[in-house]
Design brief:
The chain is 32% helix and 28% strand. It has 216 residues and is an alpha/beta fold. The chain folds into two domains: 119 residues, D-Maltodextrin-Binding Protein, domain 2, CATH 3.40.190.10; 87 residues, Periplasmic binding protein-like II (D-Maltodextrin-Binding Protein, domain 2, 3-Layer(aba) Sandwich). The strands form two sheets. Strands 2-3-1-4-11-5 form a six-stranded mixed β-sheet, with helices on both faces. The chain has a five-stranded mixed β-sheet with strand order 8-7-9-6-10. Strand 7, helix 5 and strand 8 form a beta-alpha-beta unit. Bound molecules: 1-O-pyrophosphono-5-O-phosphono-alpha-D-ribofuranose.
Length: 216
């Protein structure tokens, strides 16, 4: 794989725009667009390999150098806490990480004893409450449909991604406090940044141009 640049892309919401970004830079991503069970796609002309993996695995592949670069949401970067370069904010997939819950929790949840917080983003939630607020809370890990937790009494609040706010609204919940802004980022393996610097910096420059031109 040494002569190839390996790119890890997060499956899901960011995939379409991320693939489009590489296509605009002249990469052949046609194999990736075909609905197949293939996991690795090669552009021989550009000497690039693409892997489409679960979002939370992108930082793992990049930290270990199995992928040189990756595109993944900042939510995943913060949650995974991996040792890699967060090189470029790509500006798409914008959303927020927030504490959400029923409206009557707004004035209550801060400082509340025994607050239960359900989240997929357990590390972000823990850091926000324990370190940021100095509040001891119980973090309840979930892997999806987190909005359900306050509805069935599993937790008082949740820490989750809010994009359009539709999921919250349809479940009678609201944003109680915004934790941070999120978007897709280009992440780079620390060794690859040295060994494949020229190729990677060319990609960074091209991506910056595309973002500036807002042709994403
Ligand atoms: C995410 C997030 C919210 C929803 C927010 O879930 O966890 O549930 O999107 O989007 P909205 O503000 O536009 O409604 P996702 O769809 O990724 O699936 P999940 O429930 O499995 O986490």
């Amino acid at each position: 794989m040494e002569n190839y640049l390996t790119v890890a892309l997060a499956k899901g919401r960011l995939a379409e725009t991320a693939i489009g970004l590489f296509e605009k830079m002249g990469y052949d991503c046609s194999q990736m667009r075909e609905k197949s069970r293939k996991l690795i796609f090669t552009d021989e002309a550009k000497k690039a390999k693409f892997i489409l993996v679960k979002a939370s695995d992108v930082p793992v592949y990049v930290e270990y150098g199995a992928a040189d670069i990756g595109i993944v949401g900042r939510d995943t970067i913060l949650q995974e806490g991996r040792n890699l370069y967060e090189t470029l904010d790509l500006g798409f997939g914008k959303c927020k990480m927030a504490v959400c819950g029923p409206a009557d929790m707004k004035d209550k949840f801060s400082g509340m004893a025994n607050l239960r917080v359900a989240s997929k983003y357990t590390n972000i939630a823990r850091e926000y409450f324990h370190i940021g607020k100095g509040q001891t809370v119980e973090i309840i890990p979930l892997s999806g449909s987190v909005e359900l937790a306050p509805l069935v009494g599993l937790s008082e609040v949740i820490v989750d991604i809010v994009e359009s706010g539709k999921t919250l609204k349809e479940n009678g919940l609201e944003v109680l406090e915004v934790i941070c802004d999120l978007s897709a980022w280009l992440v780079v393996n620390r060794v690859s940044m040295k060994m494949k610097r020229e190729t990677i910096m060319e990609i960074v420059t091209n991506m910056k141009e595309l973002i500036k031109g807002e042709c994403l």
